[in-house]
Structures are given as C-alpha cells and as structure tokens.
Amino acid sequence: MKRIAIFSLHSCPAGQLGNLDVGGMNIYVLMLSKHLVHLGFYVDIFTRNHDGCIYPQIGVVDPQVRLIHIEVGDVNINKVDLYEYVDQFVSNVKFFSDNNSLQYDLIHSHYWLSGCAGEKLSDVWGVNHLLTFHTTAKAKLGVNIIEKNEEIRNLMEKKLFFSADVIIVSTLQEKKDLERYFNGSAKKSYVITPGVDLSIFYSVEKSFAKEKLSLVDDFIVLFVGRLDPIKGIDLLIESFAQIQQLEFARLVIVGGCKKGEDSTYLTKIKNLAKDYGVEQKINFEGSVDQKDLYLYYNAADVFVVPSHYESFGFAILESMACGTPVVSTSVGVSKNLIKNGQTGFLVDVGSSDELSKKIECLLGDLVLREKIGSNSYNLVKEMSWPNMALELAKVYKTLLRV
After folding, report:
1. Is it true that domain 206-380 has CATH number 3.30.300.30?
2. What is the pLDDT of residues 234-260, one digit of tens each?
3. Which class in CATH covers the domain with range 2-195+384-400?
4. Dihedrals φ, ψ of 278, to 5°?
C-alpha cells in the first residue's frame, strides 16, 4: 500500500460547507481521499489547526484516511496572511512524519498555499508533487477581485505551475486558462472531472422537501455556495427583483455564516435586498449540513449559479442529481454540461437581465422544468467519485511506476 500526503493548508476538508473558505475544494479533497483507499492507498490529509473541527488533532475520517491538524500560528489567521506561515507548516509536517516514522510516496497539494508547502516537502522527501489550483489570482483578477496578497500569490502560482511534476485540472477550459495565465505549459497536466455523491443527492417529492423546510411559496429560486463576491449573489438579487413571478416566488440563499451572524459581504447583500425592496422575499439560511442540502435542491424550482468565476462548480452537479433545472453563468463545468433548453440555461457573466429572463422562462413552464430536470439527472448519474479516484490513481501509479 502506498502512502499519499494530501495538503489542504488553508481550509479543513471537514469544515462546515458554505462557511468562509469552505466550499467545493473541501468536498473534492474529502471525497477523493475516501475513494483512493479502495485503490491501494493510505491517505493522510494535512491541514492547519482551527476552531470548531468535529475531529481531534489526528482524526480517522475513514479506514486508511486520517485528517491531521498541524499547528500554524493562531487558529484565526486570515487566509490572505497564511503565506508567511508556510515554512512553519512545512517544519511541523516534517516533525510529525519523522516522529511517527512515516514515509510518503507522493504529495498532492490543493490551492497555491498548499502548493508552496508541497514543493518544499517534495524536495525534502524526494517524492513527486501534484498540484490542483482550484482557483488562481489571475482568475480572480479577471473578474476584478483583488486580494492584498495578490502580488506574491501571482508570483508563486506561476512558479508552481512550471515546477510541479503534475498539474491536475477539472475541465479542459481550466487547463487552457492556466496555460494562458502563465504563458506556457506545465511539465504534465491531466483533466480529471470530479463527481457527485448520488447517495446524498437524489430526487424526492417537491411537496415533501418544501414541507420539511417550511417553504410555502409557489416558486423557489435557490442559491447554494460561499458568500463571496466572486459568487455574484448581488447579481442574483438584482435579477430576482426583476422577475415577473416575484409575487409568488422566494429566493433561498444557502451558505455563509451561521444564522444570526453577519459577515461584511452578507451585510452588503442584505442591504442590497432592502434597496430592491425584496428583503421580505429572501431567506438567508446560513450554513447547512451537507446531508440536508438535497432537501433544498428538491424544494427549488430553479437553481441559479450567478458566479463571475468557478474553477468547477460542484453545486451544479448536485442540483442536476436532484433533478432541479440550473441557470448558470458560463463558468466552470457549466460549459461542459449545460445545453440551452435541454439540460439548463447558460447566460453571460454579469448579465442580470439575461439571468432574470431565464429564471422567468423556467418558472413559467412546468413541462420545460421537468424535461430539463430529467435530462440533467441522466447526464450526471455516471459522474461518480469512484470513477474520478480511479482516473487519479492511474496518474499516481504512473509517477510511482507501479
């Protein structure tokens, strides 16, 4: 059995989905790790110490999968300040491996901060380093989102793109984007599409789901994701305020802070809802346990992805698995899965009018909603985590020469 070190420095894979810095990458790391063990691997996931984890410092996520919390400064360090703690993370991971007489055969890093640590430890351990970016500073800059660490992040991401032994991407478009951002090609790169867990996301009667969630409106428009400017929730609120069916509709926003707590962005979008006069038509549900998310997808008549950018977009697959039509900006996997009028609707990034019209179109046509829902499910039902793990295991074994 080969032992893989997976690095998720900035965000714990067991974090509450929808909270700050907890999203699709966390699902990716956790689900992938659980399925790699069936293919001949032990997996240790290294992340930083933080508040509120359901696991102890060394937790057993699954047989042969451990989640190891490494001490890195204060538990509440902001993500944009973590770069200066990379060396501390590296030192403490090495101490852990030495102290427990562990030898790793590969490192797979997720996000640029993990990549910085992975590159250093791949040299120390003499093993190959795989990197999945998930998102980049260049991608965020393309939608006018600039973080205070942008300069060093840009520099390190370009360095990592060329130095990593393998780059893993989720879509062909992501591969092309990275080559364009960094003006070149990686040593090796593979497109491996993630999956959806059909044991968690499945169809139930809409009336059952709405009753469980105490939703009584005729139409439900749904958003699921982090409350982050890149997600375009302000655009969604503007679009929702314009729909013809507004009197009979409710917008449900899942993700972000716990109920009763407001982040800066949550405060901003709540104020925007007041400005458009729709604050009484919007539910801010806060973070929701993943096992309950299927109820929201099934209660919804339309699921909307208004993002300015997505490296993949797991919520699209989740909605499709529940048979709920998707209206999405042309981002991430949406461009691969959505055919207009057949498996959903694509709209241009930033177009509130277009978004509003497509939501109206679906709310006004039950037959179309049912057709798209059925087609969507049939499309994604073969996209599984075991299949993705199998493809990734082939790449691992190539590097291991087994």
Report:
1. no
2. 999 999 999 999 999 999 999 875 444
3. alpha beta
4. -120, 15
